[in-house]
Amino acid sequence: MKIIACVRQTPDTETLIKIQPDGKSIETEGVKFVLGPFDEYALEAAAQIKEKHGGEVTAVCVGPDKVKETLRHCLAVGADKAVHVTGLDSDDALAIAMALAAQLKTMGADLIFTSTKGADSDRGVVGPMLSELMGLPYVGLVGDIQVEDGGKSVLCKRDIEGGYTETIRCQLPAVICAQKGIRGEPRYASLMAIMKAKKKPIDSVDVSSLGANGSGVHVNLEKMEYPPQRPPGRMVEGDTLDAKIEELVRLLRQEAKVI
Q1: For residues 70 and 33, what is the distance between their CA atoms, to the nearest angstrom?
Q2: How far is CA 153 from CA 49, 108, 170, 172, 177, in A?
Q3: Is 241:247 a contact under the CB 8 Å cutoff?
Q4: What would the pLDDT profile of 174-208 be if each residue is shown by its tens digit?
Q5: What predicted TM-score, i.e. pTM, was given to this entire model?
Q6: 2-210: which CATH number, 3.40.30.10, 3.40.50.2300, 3.40.50.620, 3.30.470.20?
Q7: pLDDT tens, 49-92?
Q8: What is the dihedral of CA 50, 53, 56, 57, to 10 degrees?
């Protein structure tokens, strides 16, 4: 099977993010960028399917030159090849989806994985956009996937409202949005795998050569700002336990207005 994992590089969730004075970007100095935590599950699912059914996994990422570090990591944890799509000076989801679609059409694939959402943008729309642009079936928020019919279809399970599980059989090729835990926890890269990944080539493709130069940009970033600070904790006063409970109920009803 020919499997593609569309991945995204995001700031490490442990990193302290600082907004630039222009209010439209973050300070990148000292910030560690990693493979998005949700993308790790998409790549792990792709790697496990390859190991069970054969084939190859290619990781594809759109972004600046620094995303090559993330692609190296992908090569160390299951990807056989890596493609870096360059030249797109935009974080607009539609522009990214158009660039991915243009590149993937040149590659061909039986199964395309995307993540639920980017840990930084929290949008979760590139996968559906990609499937529409490529004219392929799409299954979102997949928590389990099994390949059937000799690689001609997949059986997907996903959680839906009310605590139910929905089962969908989908013909391939298709775009699958991987939910956290789709095939267990992502693997760690061994030292040997890291060393081998450093020697593997990364193919670079300029978006202009694909005919997708960002003309799909419809969303522009106007302003970034920090969330409001949380108020400090408050101790409930009272001479007795009953008095404290009474005061707590009063606060919840009159100030917090949650009861």
Answers
A1: 8
A2: 13, 16, 6, 5, 15
A3: no
A4: 999 999 989 889 999 999 999 999 999 999 999 99
A5: 0.84
A6: 3.40.50.620
A7: 999 999 999 999 999 999 999 999 999 999 999 999 999 877 88
A8: -30
